[in-house]
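Entry for the shared binder. Reason: the reviewer on the internal report wants the predicted structure included alongside the sequence.
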Amino acid sequence: MTRQRSPHPWSLLLPLLLATALPLLVGCPQGDSPAPQPNAELPAAVPPPVAVLEPEQPVVPESPPEEVVPPGPPYLADAPSQPAAEPEATDRAPERTAIEDPPLGENPLRAEARPRKGKKGGDFDPIAVHGPIFEGWTQPALAVVITGRQDGYLEPCGCAGLDRMKGGMSRRHSLFRQLRNERDWPTVGLDVGGIARDYGKQAELKFHIMVDSMRTMRYDAVTLGAGDLRLPTAELAAVAAGTADQPSMFLSANVGLFGFDAGLTAAHRVIEKAGVKLGVTGVLGAEYQKGIHNPEIELAAAEAAIEKVLPHLEQADFHVLLAHATMTETKALARKFPVFDIVVTAGGAAEPPVEPRRVEDTGALLIEVGEKGMDAVVLGLYHGAQPEWRYQRVPLDARFPQSPEMHMLLTAYQHQVASLGFSGLGIRPAPQPLKETHGEYAGSQSCESCHEPAYRQWRRTPHARAFQTLLDQDPPRQLDPECISCHVVGWHPTQYFPYEGGFMSLEKTPHLIDVGCESCHGPGGNHNRAELRGTAEEKERYRKLMVITKEQSRDGQCATCHDLDNSPDFDFDTYWPEVEHYEH
């Protein structure tokens, strides 16, 4: 889903085992294992102390009603199961008496769930939540759409529905289309930069797709941001350079790709639309320049660069500065050059303000763009004795339909990701940090024979169908690393790479699809082998290692995937009753 989240280092995850969002609290009854046998293969790791959450009542009622557990996903019907241990005949799990847990909602240990909104639950009115737009506006002489800080977010995560989520190139295109075609407003598009954020081949693919999207929207001026300039210079040049019949929409007064003499992008531009001339230039601030270490990119001080271009903008009716800079530096530039009527900053809050602001001691409008492309700002110019600019923050929410053109580009992007594969994207499995203590991944089905109530509870949750969610998307996302990471077992949820022994494909590792038991508990290989052939001490050691408490889940495990980007309505106390279950 082309999502990106703040890095969550493994050093923080190790005390919590692995991170996703299916907290299961498990332990094996002492009487259900074969007679203890020595096992030299098991590592003699000493587990850290782990709190065990004991239930207040027995987990199984005396006379449970009959229930029907949802069948497994159809794509697993013919998939080979993964053995819990070596496949010798003597390693079969012992026969157990079937234990039925009560139907969903009747478990006496499960807290009463709060009413949940969820991304798909109930009716959602984006206008009621985010407010109406353009109230009282008549047709302006010119509408200027201002965006920035896309930060690699091609679209919001749609795995659980898009209704309550904002942003995406598709909705932005619909905004432009509504202004130009439905409202018949002369429209200009400006962007303060920050299209890309991460490194690597997938980041480059997204940059290309987003620039193609902005060309489709007919942007007039886009400055280069810090994230963009961390991409390979050749990639930038291939995208940013203009053609004989279409000049580049990129500009910067103080950034030169392959040097200023190469002239790949303009330093300024005068945009004429509906009889109005906008003089536009852009700069990269000093703080952001500190993060650029590329000898193929020439940088200059922002003040000196602006002084050079101002004479070329004298013919303009209004002057615009696109400052990919901190708020402090942006305001300093606005005061240094009061000729600018509109100053756009990459600094500021995560959401643009509702009301317009001005730079103190100047008359310049100060425009903040927010982050992740979730909002746009539209300025409307009205002529009169004194020209007036009207201001509107536009949330890019469900009031804007998906764009067919953007859907075609997104489909092309997913095809590119699929054709390159993990190796083509530069993704390699990393060492599994819990291998020494936990062993290999075994798959959720290996837990069923000893943990029937917990397994049946898991099967009732959306976590057990997480991979199907990717298959159901249009286009499907089951080959996109940025989507896979929170829908399978054995991936880092925020860095988008697999661990050795983790999920690799539906064909090679079908037992590791979905948000499974090991997504939270960690790999279960050692635990499984200890139950089959280990000593009593080994059994106890690995049982304790697999325990996860409610407090650990609340303190961060769930949030690694259920964050603001992917689960904006997530509330731990609301969702916990849907997944909680216990065993003595």
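Summary line for the report: Confidence is low (pLDDT under 50) at residues 3-116.
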